[in-house]
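Q: what sequence does this backbone want?
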């Protein structure tokens, strides 16, 4: 793995990073700063560690449960904008690590929502300044002006 922001950079392989080396379609959940659980989707093949951090969601289904978990209305963008907030809203904790995302505990659904390419933008990632030049890679993708995108979301 060449990306200095990756937990698997330089072939780092620990109990924590082991899910990254699994086949795509499983979850990688870890605790950040001892406070926030962060939800990632492993995206590659066995022994090629690649994952995507999910930084925010547009709450479409289950909003009542999310509102209880976050103690705020779903109309507030803070309910699920930011990786820690979205994990809390969805009830994701370490127990969801290494789960098959096509299973029945945690999964990804297709609601048929589509965006035109010009509605999607790419920018440098957030919170990885330690990755030096890799921090500047435009690997943060989001729907322009979506209020549930963690800040900054301006193009």
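A:
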């Amino acid at each position: 793995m060449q990306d200095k922001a990756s937990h698997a950079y330089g072939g780092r392989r620990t109990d924590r990073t082991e899910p990254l080396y699994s086949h795509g379609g499983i979850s990688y959940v870890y605790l950040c700063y001892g406070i926030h659980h962060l939800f990632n989707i492993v995206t590659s093949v066995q022994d090629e560690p690649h994952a995507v951090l999910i930084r925010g969601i547009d709450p479409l289904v289950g909003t009542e449960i999310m509102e209880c978990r976050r103690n705020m209305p779903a109309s507030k963008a803070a309910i699920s904008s930011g990786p820690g907030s979205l994990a809390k809203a969805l009830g994701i904790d370490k127990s969801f690590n290494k789960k098959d995302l096509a299973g029945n505990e945690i999964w990804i659904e297709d609601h048929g929502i589509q965006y035109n390419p010009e509605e999607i933008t790419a920018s440098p990632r957030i919170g990885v300044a330690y990755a030096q030049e890799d921090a500047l890679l435009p690997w943060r993708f989001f729907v322009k002006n979506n209020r549930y995108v963690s800040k900054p979301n301006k193009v």
